[in-house]
Specification:
Order of helices and strands: EEHHEE
CATH class: Alpha Beta
Organism: Corynebacterium phoceense
Radius of gyration: 18 Å
Number of strands: 4
Helix content: 25-40%
Pfam families: YbjQ_1 (PF01906)
CATH architecture: 2-Layer Sandwich
Protein name: UPF0145 protein EJK80_10025
Strand content: 35-45%
Number of domains: 1
Number of helices: 2
Shape: elongated
Strand order of the largest sheet: 1-3-4-2
Family: Belongs to the UPF0145 family.
Structural class: alpha+beta
C-alpha cells in the first residue's frame, strides 16, 4: 500500500475514493522522562525521552492507519496528516492521530 501526504500518487490515477480513515494511539509519559524534560527545559536542549515517545506514537498511529486501509482493500492512503494532542488530568498522556483518504488506484499508461 502506498502512503503519501500528497493528494495524488505519481504515475497512478485514483479510480475511487473509499473513505476517510484514521489511526490513533495514546501513550503515557513516565516520571523519569518527565523529570528529564523538566531538567532540559531549565538547561536548554532537546528532550530525547519525549522525542522517542512521540516517534513511537506516530509509528503506532501509522500502523493503525495501514491496518484500516488494508481492511478496506485500499491501494493507497492519500493526504495523510498528523495531530498531536496532550491528554489526561495532568497532560501526562499523548494522543497521536494519523488521518488520510483510502483510495483505489490504476497505473497510468
Amino acid at each position: 500500500m502506498i502512503f503519501t501526504t500528497t493528494n495524488n500518487v505519481e504515475g497512478h490515477e485514483i479510480t475511487s475514493y473509499i473513505r476517510v480513515i484514521a489511526g490513533e494511539t495514546v501513550t503515557g509519559i513516565n516520571f523519569l522522562k518527565d523529570l528529564g524534560a523538566s531538567l532540559r527545559s531549565f538547561t536548554g536542549g532537546r528532550s530525547a525521552g519525549y522525542e522517542d515517545e512521540a516517534v513511537k506514537a506516530r509509528e503506532s498511529a501509522l500502523n493503525e492507519l495501514w491496518n484500516r486501509g488494508a481492511e478496506l482493500g485500499a491501494d493507497a492512503v492519500v493526504g495523510i496528516a498528523f495531530d498531536y494532542s496532550p491528554m489526561g488530568a495532568n497532560n501526562d498522556m499523548l494522543m497521536v492521530t494519523a488521518t488520510g483518504t483510502a483510495v483505489k488506484l490504476r497505473p497510468l499508461n
